[in-house]
Write a structure and sequence with these properties.
The complex is a heterotrimer. Chain A is an alpha+beta fold. Chain A contains 8 helices and 10 strands. Chain A has 3 domains: about 90 residues, no CATH class; about 110 residues, Cupredoxins -  blue copper proteins (Immunoglobulin-like); about 90 residues, Cupredoxins -  blue copper proteins (Immunoglobulin-like, Sandwich). Chain B is mainly α. The termini of chain B are far apart. Chain C has one domain. In chain C, α1 runs antiparallel to α2, α1 runs parallel beside α3 and α2 packs antiparallel against α3. Chain C is elongated and about 50 Å long. The termini of chain C are far apart. Classes of the chains: A alpha+beta, B mainly alpha, C mainly alpha.
Chain lengths: ~325, ~850, ~90
């Protein structure tokens, strides 16, 4: 049970990239060392306290205090410090001379704004709560914040890095192989901080390029009348905050919905995307994620919700 | 009556001497009992209050754990949960941990070093009452839904007015603000108490390790707390007036808060741990009936921990994107600080090996402490490694680490200490049988609750989350943690039942030295501490000096009764503990209590923005404090008194011999630490937002700072001249000249910046912060000077009786020097870098 | 008083060294002078180490206080040395 837990999507000890792998290795060495030292110290303490006095008296005070208390920690920690710093230096973190795919990720209360950047650092296309990367190639995440402190953390790939308003922190990550990883905001940001998760999906390079092309395309046109009704409702009620490229909706306050239907989750990791969850979110989002900044739209009738949800689900 | 060659005073003592001593030190009766100031009573009330907050914050944790026992649980929503975890952390750290160890110092220290009381008993009483009232009202904010929600660390921008409108965070800022002041008052007591009131012969080498730990604890408070006081003030200024210290849109930086807060926050945990380690170093020798092995190594370890802990703070900020080389300094220091802890652990092990361990409840808690704390210390070394911390920072791994070191390193020693020292304060000891159960439940409970959290954190669970998704598989571990939490609660509840049944407070009829321990607090005693003050010749006087207890109780040693007709105690030299003079001590009275209540009311009403009522309460507080201050500085023309051993000592001292001078110097160190943080904040904001800084041409003309400096220096000259006239002519009226000069200087500073808008940029904000701080110091200097002049006018200040003037003089010169430094920074630095 | 100062001197030297390396390094990184960092750390470390070694040889106090003075200076020396390693190993201002 423990092993399966530590193999999970969000586990520190199930690395899927070189940085996380280095750290996981370091972790095992630290655990082993700590366990050994703990066992020795505890054994000594119990022995000194409870063994027969003739035996306990053999322990030399000087050896214990100077040897065990000073020499041993100084030597062990000196070695540990040097080793840890050298490994730290070796982490493939630095923005190398190669031109990396740059993705700007902005922490918002309580979701992730994702913007893929072109070669000039301008926005190519936007997404939300999900990041897709080509497997085997490093990408640079430019971490910012629109409001309060957040922290970007996908344990399978790398350690966390805070998103601080007024600053851009750069995190270079690489996934070794295709896969899906889960992350969560790791700096308390008020309200439903607990429900601010994200998915990173690594695909092989051709699949990634296809995905990018699809993302650049405008939102899918309505296929049936239901979708048409949904689109009309969307334009009337959602355009202030949301963008659906290819329509008049160009709001920037909330997540970009152009290809919302194909995302892994709604509400930043809250639930899978289908007509039912979309309708629940629109009508009673405050119950699902109390305090989130999208108002509830309880005034929609059942039919309206049905149409709207169908349209949004269709935005693949 | 005959003199024994080995005793300072002849025996038997005259009739009535002991009765008079008892009468003088009796607590007030009836309702007036609340005006008690004696450390025995204040100490017990203080520990009790701290324990109350421990239980209250623990109950909050139980609610949190029930919410987290199952995934997607809906017992508690985020709004309430965020208040719960903020209050749990804040109450535990500020209202339980530091006050608890402070309280043990108040209770034990005077007796342990052979003094009759702390040097400033009314200050302790004031600090206690302010803490009790303020703490209870702060906790009650939960019931009104007004509790803060920003976490105990209160990071902006979340805690600024933009993202936290409402007064919840103000409760923290103003509520905890005066707890911080309480702590500083306690620190002053401890430093002066440990260094100036020890029994004759108790050199630093013979001083108990707990006294060393309280000394270092207090010095750390002096340098660490001002950082959080400043941070608190800056955040409140931003919330109330929009001064953008932490707003990046206007040149501020959220990281400035983190630097200031953690510069306090890291030493804070060692402030909590060191006294606990000191208590363990007293309990282990007693339980093994053998002196502490490696005593000087243990003292060195405490000192080294004290200063190294100031180099760790950025390890709370490893994930913020700071330069890697900067992080490496903190990784190194964080590892270095583990060494002194290791030294102490091995010293205790060596002591066990040398002696024979009596397996009583205190011993059980000491072994529990060793196991839990060592494990926590090892995970601490792990998180000191930067890349590893990048993964586990802000996860349940750190929650596990911090609870292991805090519960292991402080709560377990506290329980050991309560079981150990209850016979000192109470008629009956606590039950050994129940004690084993308490220990068992707590020890197993802590491990069941917190060990799984290491795994939970590695499995990806972040901190400060009110729920988690079912598919992540964290449920089993969370349920285990919840079960462990309830086991701990059961242990504490059992303890409380036993405590209520057995603890009956008594200083005179206490259960006695049931452990056959060797240090002075175990002498037969009353409210007056021991009957006479012993001459100490070793570290464990009760073991090494036969008949000491009998001879002390019979009055054979120093000061066997009151020497001055009132309460008094002996002042000795800092290093060698040579008797210097006799301090007259105050009787109980209302002013500290009234002052404390109304100080607390002032801060709390301000939180509700009820400015007029707040001002009214503040005025009452100030009146009470002035009334109290007026009774300070007793007459100087009293003849020296005999304390025994042929020693006739003065009853009044001025200059560095005076305890009031020491208090003022310590206060100046606190002020310097705060001002240092302010200077740091200025330079930091410049480093981060140089664009907000003016060119030399845009600064106020150089005439302003020069004029201000001239006024300040002239005012110091006036004070110096007043010192001369006091020495020569017995009055200090020239001091009055300094007052308008100080006002003019400050007016000049304000006028210089009149065109600068504090709300427009971080530059404007920080320059105005200097004005606020400088203004505050000038105001206090004026009050002290006016007070001295009033004393002069009332005939209570003269050539010999001059402590009030000397304190005003010290503070004045300090304020001038500090303000000049500020002027140099504000007017000089931008010109330098232009 | 002098005794107390000597006993604290090791801590004071360590604190000044730490403030210097942290402050100057932060300034250097903020203003893009990364190559200065090893020099800052190396020179401050050498000065601090020298001061501490001198402190350890000062005479004058009774045995316990002198032992503490030397002990505090030794602890500070280890810390100064360890805090200097990073500047020569780790990538600097990244």
């Amino acid at each position: 049970m423990l092993a399966s837990l530590l193999e999970g999507q969000q586990s520190v000890l199930a690395p899927r990239g070189p940085v996380a792998a280095e750290i996981a290795q370091t972790a095992w060495v630290l655990f082993a060392g700590a366990a050994a030292i703990f066992a020795i110290v505890l054994a000594l303490a119990l022995f000194a306290g409870f063994a027969r006095r003739e035996w306990a008296g053999q322990l030399s005070e000087h050896v214990l205090i100077v040897g065990g208390g000073i020499v041993l920690p100084v030597v062990v920690l000196c070695v540990l410090l040097a080793w840890a710093l050298l490994r730290f230096a070796d982490l493939p973190l630095a923005s190398a001379s190669e031109r990396l795919l740059a993705i700007r990720v902005t922490g918002e209360q309580w979701w992730w704004r994702v913007e893929y950047l072109d070669a000039n650092g301008q926005r190519d296309f936007a997404a939300a709560n999900e990041i897709r990367i080509p497997a085997g190639r490093p990408v640079e995440l430019r971490l910012e914040s629109a409001d309060v402190l957040h922290s970007f953390w996908v344990p399978a790939l790398a350690g966390k890095l805070d998103m601080i308003p007024g600053r851009t922190n750069r995190l270079r990550v690489r996934a070794d192989a295709p896969g899906e990883f889960r992350g969560q905001c790791a700096e308390y940001c008020g309200g439903p901080h607990a429900l601010m998760a994200l998915h990173v999906i690594a695909s092989d390079p051709e699949a990634f390029e296809r995905w990018v092309a699809a993302q650049r395309a405008p939102g899918r046109e309505p296929a049936v009348a239901l979708h048409e009704r949904g689109r009309a409702l969307m334009l009337a009620h959602c355009a202030v905050c949301h963008t659906v490229r290819g329509t008049a909706a160009a709001g920037e306050r909330g997540p970009d919905l152009t290809h919302f239907g194909s995302r892994r989750s709604i509400g930043a990791g809250l639930a899978p995307v289908n007509a039912g969850t979309i309708a629940s979110w629109i009508a009673s989002g405050q119950h699902l994620k109390p305090g989130n900044l999208m108002p509830e739209f309880a005034a929609f009738s059942g039919a309206e919700l049905h149409a709207l949800a169908a349209y949004l689900e269709n935005l693949q | 009556m005959h003199a024994r060659a080995d005793l300072p005073n002849p025996l038997p003592r005259p009739a009535g001497e002991l009765e008079e001593l008892k009468r003088l030190w009796n607590p007030p009766r009836g309702l007036r009992f609340v005006t008690v100031i004696n450390n025995n009573y204040i100490g017990v009330m203080y520990v009790g209050t701290a324990f109350l907050f421990f239980v209250l914050a623990g109950i909050l944790a139980l609610v949190m754990r029930v919410q987290l026992a199952a995934p997607a649980n809906d017992l508690v929503g985020p709004q309430l949960y965020n208040q719960l975890f903020t209050m749990h952390g804040t109450v535990m750290m500020f209202l339980f941990a530091v006050p608890a160890v402070e309280a043990m110092g108040v209770l034990l220290l005077p007796n342990m070093v052979g003094a009759r009381d702390l040097p400033f008993p009314r200050l302790s009483a004031y600090a206690f009452w302010a803490y009790l009232i303020g703490g209870l009202v702060f906790f009650a904010s939960l019931f009104a839904g007004l509790a803060p929600t920003g976490g105990w660390f209160m990071n902006p921008p979340l805690t600024t007015g933009t993202y936290s409108p409402g007064i919840n965070e103000d409760f923290w800022l103003l509520g905890i603000g005066f707890i911080e002041i309480s702590a500083i008052a306690g620190a002053i007591e401890m430093i002066v108490g440990v260094l100036r009131t020890r029994a004759p012969g108790m050199t630093l080498a013979r001083m108990p390790v707990f006294a060393w730990s309280m000394l270092i604890f207090a010095v750390m408070i002096v340098f660490a707390f001002p950082a959080v006081i400043l941070a608190t003030a800056l955040l409140e200024l931003e919330r109330a007036f929009g001064w953008p210290f932490f707003d990046p849109a206007k040149g501020g930086d959220p990281l400035l808060w983190q630097h200031l807060f953690w510069f306090f926050g890291h030493p804070e945990v060692y402030i909590i741990f060191l006294p606990a380690a000191g208590m363990v170093s007293m309990i282990v020798p007693a339980m093994t009936r053998t002196p502490l092995a490696g005593h000087r190594f243990v003292v060195l370890a405490l000192v080294a921990t004290g200063f190294l802990s100031f180099g760790l703070w950025v390890h709370h900020m490893f994930a913020t994107g700071l330069p890697h080389v900067s992080l490496s300094f903190f990784q190194a220091a964080s590892m270095a600080v583990a060494i002194p802890s290791g030294i102490q652990v091995f010293a205790w092990i060596a002591t066990f090996a040398k002696g024979k361990v009596a397996v009583k409840t205190p011993t059980l808690f000491v072994f529990g402490f060793l196991g839990i704390f060592v494990l926590g210390g090892l995970t601490g070394v792990m998180v000191a490694v930067v890349p590893f911390d990048w993964q586990v920072h802000d996860t349940y791994f750190v929650v596990a680490h911090l609870h292991y070191v805090l519960i292991g390193g402080m709560v377990f020693p506290l329980f050991a200490a309560i079981y150990y020292w209850t016979p000192y304060s109470s008629r009956h000891a606590l039950s050994e049988r129940v004690g084993r159960w308490v220990f068992g439940l707590m020890f197993v409970g802590v491990n069941v609750a917190f060990f799984p959290m290491h795994v939970t954190g590695l499995a990806g669970m972040p901190r400060r989350v009110y729920t988690y998704a079912p598919e992540l598989g964290w449920d089993g571990l969370n349920l285990a943690s919840t079960i462990g939490a309830f086991m701990i609660a059961a242990g504490v509840a059992l303890f409380l039942v036993d405590f209520a049944r057995r603890f009956r407070m008594s200083a005179e009829a206490n259960a006695g030295n049931v452990w056959d321990a060797g240090t002075l607090e175990w002498l037969p005693s009353g409210n007056y501490s021991s009957r006479s003050i012993p001459l100490v010749a070793s570290r464990e006087p009760l073991w090494d000096q036969p008949n000491l207890a009998h001879d002390v109780a019979a009055g054979g040693y120093f000061l066997p009764g009151s020497a001055t007709g009132g309460r008094d105690t002996l002042i000795t030299s800092p290093v060698h503990a040579r008797p210097q003079w006799v301090l007259r001590m105050p009787m109980p009275g209302w002013p500290p209590l009234v002052g404390a209540w109304f100080t607390a009311a002032f801060f709390l009403l301000l939180t509700f923005k009820l400015v007029i009522p707040a001002a009214a309460c503040g005025a009452v507080a100030i009146i009470a404090i002035l009334r109290w201050a007026w009774s300070l500085d007793p007459p100087a023309d009293v003849a020296p008194v005999s304390i025994g051993g042929g020693l006739r000592l003065p009853v009044y001292a001025t200059g560095p011999r005076s305890q009031a001078w020491w208090a003022m110097v310590i206060l100046m160190l606190v002020a310097a630490s705060l001002y240092g943080c302010l200077l740091f904040s200025y330079l930091y904001l410049w480093l981060v937002s140089p664009a907000a800084w003016p060119s030399a041409a845009a600064l106020p003309g150089i005439g302003y700072p020069l004029a201000t400096a001239a006024c300040l220096l002239a005012s110091s000259a006036a004070v110096g001249y007043a010192d001369r006239t006091l020495r020569r002519h017995g009055h200090c009226y020239p001091l009055a000249v300094a007052l308008p000069l100080a006002v003019a200087a400050f007016a000049g500073s304000v006028a210089a910046q009149r065109r600068l808008d504090p709300g427009e940029s971080s530059y404007g904000a920080i320059v105005h912060a200097f004005l606020v701080v400088d203004g505050w110091f000038v105001a206090v200097a004026l009050v002290l000077a006016l007070f001295a002049l009033a004393r002069q006018r009332a005939g209570l200040l003269d050539r010999t009786r001059r402590v009030t003037f000397d304190n005003a003089r010290l503070f004045w010169h300090y304020t001038v020097a500090q303000t000049l430094a500020g002027l140099g920074m504000v007017h000089g630095f931008p010109r330098l870098v232009s | 008083m002098q005794t107390v100062l000597r006993m604290s001197a090791g801590a004071i030297v360590w604190a000044i060294h730490f403030g210097v390396i942290y402050g100057l390094t932060a300034a250097a990184c903020a203003r893009n002078f990364a190559p200065l960092v090893p020099w800052i750390v190396g020179i401050s470390g050498a000065v601090a180490a020298a001061a501490l070694l001198i402190l350890m040889t000062l005479p004058g106090d009774p045995a316990f206080e002198r032992w503490l003075t030397v002990g505090v200076a030794a602890a500070a020396l280890i810390a100064v040395f360890w805090e200097s390693i990073g500047a020569f190993v780790v990538p600097l201002c990244d």
